[in-house]
Specification:
- By secondary structure, the chain is of the alpha/beta class.
- The protein has helices at about 15-25, 50-60, 95-100, 120, 125-135, 150-160, 185-190, 210-215, 225, 265, 290, 300-320; strands spanning about 5, 40-45, 65-70, 75-80, 90, 105-110, 140, 170-175, 200, 220, 230-235, 275.
- It contains twelve helices and twelve strands.
- A five-stranded parallel sheet has the order 1-7-6-2-3, sandwiched between helices.
- The protein is globular and about 55 Å long.
- The structure holds phosphoric acid mono(formamide)ester (CP).
Length: about 325
């Protein structure tokens, strides 16, 4: 595998899940595969889980790891071609990318949406420059419109905890004080649409996700109705994706606390498991009671980030020339 940005890069999901469970049983099974190979992790944005789990995954495979926080200690990077660089940005991404690539074999990139220009975000302007100019395999550690390592870990978690062959999985919008990207809900939808689940998305009007990710999923605007009989509730906030009104792209249209996942919401489900990618704002997205309940999977879900990253890096190592 040369690139990992969406569900299709992984091929057959059943094989990928089988590989994940094989690695979960013995995470050091391929500990020599990455000998003398270096994984460079580049962060344009903050991270706790991705930073730690991806380093751990690379080390499970015997790789060396270099971590660069672009905004802490590196030169400030210009990303637009053609600008006169007379401001505070000392280096252009077009030089920085091949230089960084010369020190490693595989590159992971975290670069969130900027919410300045929908097209720039939805064409993955930063991530695609790494793919185009590095000459190295590149994987997303959450880009402007997708977070595939998270969605793969979510699928592994659902597979581990499901009590029926085809569970009902509900992705629900929930309130948040600030504008957040659509990367997590987009990727979650991308993956659930390929998985063997009954998938429903619920959100207030105006928060419609991009049709490229929604595909054939059912969209239900009545959150309580969507929750009825659900086996898994996946909560996440996202800012307006600008699908129905492009001018609203990146705006916070609602902070309606009626959408906070609480015990009353969970009561209409089929004793559903609660999921969230973390970090989570308690008592905005979900109440203390729900996130602390035995049915909350937020910790095992985060732990599975090591497994999803190990599978992805293993496949990338196997694909090196
Ligand atoms: N879920 C997730 O990607 O967490 P971090 O932002 O802490 O990496």
């Amino acid at each position: 595998m040369r690139y990992f940005t969406n569900v299709h890069d992984l091929g057959d999901l059943k094989s990928a899940l089988a590989e994940a469970f094989e690695i979960k049983k013995d995470r050091y099974k391929y500990e020599t595969l990455g000998k003398h190979k270096t994984c460079l992790l580049i962060f344009f944005n903050n991270s706790l889980r991705t930073r730690l789990s991806t380093q751990k995954a690379a080390r499970n495979l015997g790789m060396d790891v270099i971590v660069l926080d672009v905004n802490q200690g590196a030169w400030k990077l210009e990303t637009e071609r053609g600008v006169i660089m007379d401001g505070d940005k000392s280096e252009h991404l077009l030089e920085a990318i091949p230089v960084m690539a010369s020190y490693c074999d595989i590159i992971g990139v975290r670069s969130f949406a900027h919410f300045e220009n929908r097209e720039d975000d939805y064409t993955e302007k930063i991530l695609n420059q790494f793919i185009k100019y590095s000459g190295k395999p590149v994987f997303s550690m959450e880009a402007a419109t997708g977070h595939p390592l998270q969605a793969f870990a979510d699928l592994i978690t659902i597979e581990e905890y499901k009590k029926k062959d085809r569970p009902k999985v509900v992705l629900t919008w929930a309130p948040h004080p600030r504008a957040l990207p659509q990367a997590v809900p987009n990727s979650f939808a991308d993956w659930m649409n390929e998985a063997d689940v009954d998938f429903v998305i619920t959100h207030p009007e105006g928060y419609e996700l991009d049709p490229k990710f929604v595909r054939g999923a059912k969209v239900e605007y009545n959150q309580m109705k969507a929750f009825e009989g659900a086996d898994f509730i996946y909560a996440k906030n996202w800012a307006c994706p600008g699908v129905t009104r492009p001018a609203d792209y990146g705006k916070v249209l609602s902070k309606d606390m009626n959408w906070t996942v609480d015990a009353a919401h969970m009561a209409v489900t089929n004793d559903a498991f609660f999921m969230h990618c973390l970090p989570v704002r308690r008592n905005m997205i979900v109440t203390d009671e729900v996130i602390e309940a035995p049915t909350s999977l937020v910790i095992p879900e985060a732990a599975n980030r090591e497994i999803s990253a190990t599978v992805v890096l293993k496949r990338m190592l196997e694909g090196l020339e």
